[in-house]
Amino acid sequence: MVRERHDGSASRRRRGQGELEGLVLAALRSADGPVNAGWVQERLGADLAYTTVVTILTRLLAKGAVTRQRAGRSFVWEPAADEAGLAALRMRKVLDGESDREAVLASFVTALGPDDEQLIRALLNEATDEPEG
């Protein structure tokens, strides 16, 4: 991405880590199966270095957002979950980082609208009705 500076010369806009992670995850979700870092780089454009793509994939692996498996001398990557699963992972990480889980959950639940509250109740009832296996 190129933008013009105040002096009229061009410069590349530096993308934030979260933005790059989102772009990489979107590329992985569009794939038909596991893909290598080169495939991801091609989808994101030539202005993104291969090493940057590998760094972002490695960070996403550490966060549990992607999985990888060995394919020859390299790796192939895929999302660990769909968008809803990744959002749930982020929510759990935030909750895990708090010292008073009960207070956080209570605050979250009391701030829900009636439709979301009913949905949560239904999901909890469904979860308790399922046999453990």
From TrEMBL:
The keyword Transcription applies. Keywords: DNA-binding, Transcription, Transcription regulation. It holds the Pfam family Penicillinase_R. Signal peptide: none annotated. InterPro entries: BlaI_family, WH-like_DNA-bd_sf, WH_DNA-bd_sf. Belongs to the BlaI transcriptional regulatory family. This is BlaI/MecI/CopY family transcriptional regulator. It comes from Streptomyces luteolus.
